[in-house]
Amino acid sequence: MSELSKAENRKVGFVLGLTGGIATGKSTAAKVFQSHGFPLIDGDVIARETVELGTLALRKVVSVFGQEILQSDGQLDRGKLGMIVFPSKEKRQKLDQLLDPFIRKAIKDQIAYLSSHHPLVIVDIPLLYEGHYDHYMDAVAVVYTTPDIQLRRLMKRNQLTLEQAQQRISSQLPIEEKKQRADILFDNNGTKEELMEQIENWLSANRFL
């Protein structure tokens, strides 16, 4: 497993990007880091907060995709929005363009604050490479599985058909490309305990534990 490649033995403010493919176990890995007390910046949480009721970002999204993406109480219906954007690369790109300025600012602000107070900060972003967030990281770790395991886990977790799951996987960079670009690799083809052991070994090897 890779050692820290960009800031070897650095003990203050190391920013580790954490990514992978959809349903490859990135969130499970993030919980391992959190269990050891390291702060987590969760890109999914920030993205959800960005489009909460009453936000400028939500108004922009509705102006493009229509009132039908809202629930009766005015909250965003993520399922309906997903059904619109996942089959269409053009619509996904449009949604990304609308939300990116809001999400990027929030992530950068949290990185700046937390990295000045903690020796290690984890930044969990599903589309880290696609969004060019790797430039803000000292290193990037990719959690991966085989394509077959990824597909089966996604179908089971999200109750998707084969076609729907394949659409969501194909909307991201191939996991093999992410692996090639990564500084650190965590293999999640096995059990949660095996994934935890890999992460704890990395933390120990780099003097964070």
UniProtKB/TrEMBL annotation:
Q: Which UniProt keywords apply?
A: ATP-binding, Coenzyme A biosynthesis, Cytoplasm, Kinase, Nucleotide-binding, Transferase
Recorded hits in InterPro entries, A to Z, give: Depp_CoAkinase, P-loop_NTPase
From what superkingdom does this record's organism come?
Answer: Bacteria
Q: Name the pathway.
A: Cofactor biosynthesis; coenzyme A biosynthesis; CoA from (R)-pantothenate: step 5/5
Q: Where does ATP bind?
A: 23-28
Q: Which Pfam families match?
A: CoaE (PF01121)
Q: In the Enzyme Commission scheme, what number(s) does this protein have?
A: 2.7.1.24
Q: Where in the cell is it found?
A: Cytoplasm
Chief localization: cytoplasm
Query: What GO molecular function annotation could you give as one example from this UniProt entry?
Result: ATP binding
What are the record's GO terms for cellular component?
cytoplasm
- The residue stretches assigned to a coiled coil in this entry are none
Q: Name one GO biological process term.
A: coenzyme A biosynthetic process
Q: Which reaction does it catalyse?
A: 3'-dephospho-CoA + ATP = ADP + CoA + H(+)
NCBIfam families under this entry? dephospho-CoA kinase
Q: Which family does it belong to?
A: Belongs to the CoaE family.
Function in brief = Catalyzes the phosphorylation of the 3'-hydroxyl group of dephosphocoenzyme A to form coenzyme A.
Protein name stated in the entry: Dephospho-CoA kinase
Q: Which organism is it from?
A: Enterococcus faecium
